Every structure is written in structure tokens, then in C-alpha cells.
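> tool_call: predict_assembly(chains=two)
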Amino acid sequence: MKRLYLLLFLPLLMVGCKGEKKLARYNEMYQQEPTVIYVAPLNDLSMRRAVRETVDSVYNASLNIASRQLYLTATDPLASHGYYVLGPLASAQIAATETRTGRQLRNDNINDLHTDLGIDAVLFIDLINWSHTSNSWSVEAEYVLRSTVTGVELLHVHVNATKILPTDYNGNPKPLKDDLEFAKQYGCDLETAQRCRLVEIMNQYVLKDLPAGKRARKHEAEQYAKPHPEYFNLRIHRDGSVERLKDEEL
Amino acid sequence: MTEQAMRARHINIILLAAVLLLAACSGRYIGTPRVAMLDYQTNGTYGSLYALATAHAESINAAVKADTLHPGMYAEYGVALALMGHDGEACRMLNSEVKAFPESRRMVRRIKERLLPAMVDDTLAGRRDTADMLKLQNWAYDSLAALQHLPWVAAVIDSTDTVRVMMQTPVDSVEYPIRLTANQKRELLLEEQHREELRRKEVEDSIAAAKQAKIDAREQAKADKKKAKKEKEKAKKEADKQKKLAAKEKARQREQEKQRRAEERKAKKQGKEAAE
């Protein structure tokens, strides 16, 4: 009898452990189908703490650059999901015309953004805290996507992202290739690069599951349908030679 | 070439080389808009803004070629140009954003109100400046409104520099073609091919129908002739029949008359005999 109970309850237990479904999580988003998303200026709560605790200007500058990178890279996942989102430079111009504070935008009625500017939803990002150990970097942030039509929260994520660096035999952290490349591209120090890459990946991770927007390209349809006449495929051989495939071979 | 000129030229070359050397030593490659943007956000100098605008221009060119234009690309470039003071080009870029992504119209209008207040009403892009636009509008108003007694007329220059005159249509309500994806383009192509096929089929069908109509008419004429002949024969037969019947009737009447006369004669004879 015990076995029978076990057999009955075990699958139920397993089903119960399954994570939240996308349809349930983005229920409001599926209902409202926002097209235009505006990324509000970053609310950097970490800076106050950093300034109070340390007077190290280099450290603060590094945090500044990383927090800017968090704001700059937040638009990419939204755009790639098919939403219309203005870039940071243009968004800054919109933000400059806004008279309300971040808190007011977050809590008050923002229906005028929909009627005046055609914005369907606003993404608020709060950068809460930075922390680090000898071989890890952590950032705590909160993402809120709020509808301008109904005022409800379409997405609310509190995330604590940590980047753990591999260590060598002496226990010293080894730099990652991406961080080195970023530091080389931007001309900044490695610590800043590590923070910047961390927030970039955090943005991608948090916004990766969003439902596809109206402008999303139908990748599957494009992949399996007959290709566009201007498109072509290449096959790269081991010896380095490149062969251009014809339409029939695709 | 004089010695002074030669020296000046040498100095120029040395300066150019020094600038190139400094640029190479900086170790900073501002190629992608993101890196340039971060640089501009951190430093906020004219040089970093110029680098940002250049990076945006390059990325737009590449995106247009590869058909991977992202929302906001034109707007970013337009804002960068506006901040640099190139108002005409900035206006054109912002209008391109509206043309590519119509949902950005109101936001672009707000940006223009802030950065290019003189060009807020230029809802369509042109390679001309606002002054030219106003001149054209005035010209259109004077030449057409006066003639046709219209309430108002607006002339707009589109991206191909052609003047379009819109009558009684608010400029804001004009619909621009939206950017097509590769899939949509292919669908349009297929639709056009299908339409062409239908048109060709229609022409072929009409030719075949004309031929068939000719054949049908000929056969109909033949059939009509045959029918007429048959009817004629039938009528002839009917007439013959009628004639025969008439002749028969006549013969019968003659026979009856004969009988009646014979009877009369007989009766007369009998009467005579009785009288005798």
C-alpha cells in the first residue's frame, strides 16, 4: 500500500516542483500586447551607499561606468524580441522633457505617456547594490515593466547576479576572455570590464523570456521557407575553403 | 616649390603622422555604437559624440544592406547629429525613423520639439531645409489653392526629393509604407507572380473563349439552317397533307352531291311513275 501511495504522490510532487510557466508569468503581457517600450533612466541606489562607504574616486568611476552599461544594454534584448524601443540617446531626450520623478512615474498614473507619446509600457531598472569578493562580482537589481494603459506591472523581477571567476593554483582570479576583449575595446580597466559584462549578461538573462513582440521576425518561417533571392548560404570546409550553396541545396 | 613651402609641407606630414600615432596608441577602438555610446556617456566630449555619430552611420549602412534595421537606429543617429548641430540631416534621419517605424512618430515629434523646434512640422524627410519647405508650401498654396479654391494645401518633399501636393489631408494622417521583413517581401513577390499568372491565364482564357465563340456561332448557324430546312420540309409536307385532305373532302362532297342528285332523280322518277 505504501508503495502505491509513493507511486501516486511522486509524479504529483515532481509536477509541483516544475517552475512557473511562461504563459502564467507573462499573462498580462500576452493580454495587453505592448509594442512600444520606453526604458526609463536608471535608478541607481547603489551609488549612495558606495559614496558613503568609500571615497575612492576610481572605484566610484568604475561603478558609474558599469551602471551606465546596465542602462545602455537594456534596450538590446527588448529590440531583439520585436518591441519598438528607442536607443539610450533618444530616450534621454524624452526623459529630459519628463517633469515627474522616477518614484512618481513608478506609482502614479502614466496613461499620458500612452496618449502623448504612444508608449505602451515603461521599463524601470533599479540598481540596488554592488558587492564583490576576491573572485566574484555581484550586482543586485530590480526590473519592473509597467503598462501605461492599465498601470499594472507586466514584469517584476528582483535579481541578484553573481559572476564567479576561475582561479589559478594560487587562488588568484583569472580574467575571462570576454572581459579582456571588452577592456581592450573600451580602453578601461579589467574590473570595470568585468562589472560591465556582468550587467550586460544580467540584462540578457532577465529579459530573455519575454513574449515575442509585433516586430519579431519569424525565424522558423524564414529558416524553413524558400530563401529570399538575395540570401545565400555558405559551407565552410575544414581546409578553410568556402563554398556558396545554391537554392536547391538549401 | 620654395623652401618655405617645402618646410610647411613637412610640418603638415609630421603633424598628421603624430595624430595617427596618438590615435593608434590610445588602444581604444570606437567602432560599435555601444562602445562609442559608453564613451560619450562617460566623457561627454564633442569628439566622443562625433565618434558615436560615425559609429551609428556605419551600423545603419550595414543594417540597411543586410535588412536588419533595428528600431531606434535612425533616431539615435538623428539625435547625435542634432546635438552636433547638423539640423537638416538630423531632421532627415528622425523622419527616416518615422518612415521605417510609424509607431515612433509621437516620440520623434517630442524629440524634435526639444532639439529641432523649427522642424517639428516637417513630418516627412527631404534633402531640403525648412526654409525650402516653407517656400514650397507657399508656392503650392498660392498656385493651387487660389486656383482651386481649396481650404488649404500642403506641399511635402519626400525622401526622393519629389514634391507631393496633398489637398485637404492633414500631414500627420499620411500613412507611410512600413519596413518589410524578408518574409513579407517574399510573400509580396509570390503574390505579384500569382497575380501575373492569373492575368496571363485570363488573357489566354479570353482568346480561347473568343475562338470557342466563333466555332459555336458557326455550328449554331449550321444547326439553324438545318432546322429551317427541316421546318420548311415539314411545312411542305403539312401543305401537301392539307391539299390531299382538301381533295379528299372535295371528292367526298362531289360523291355526296352525286348521291343526292341520284336520289332526287330517283324520287322524281318514282313521283312521275305514281302520277302516271
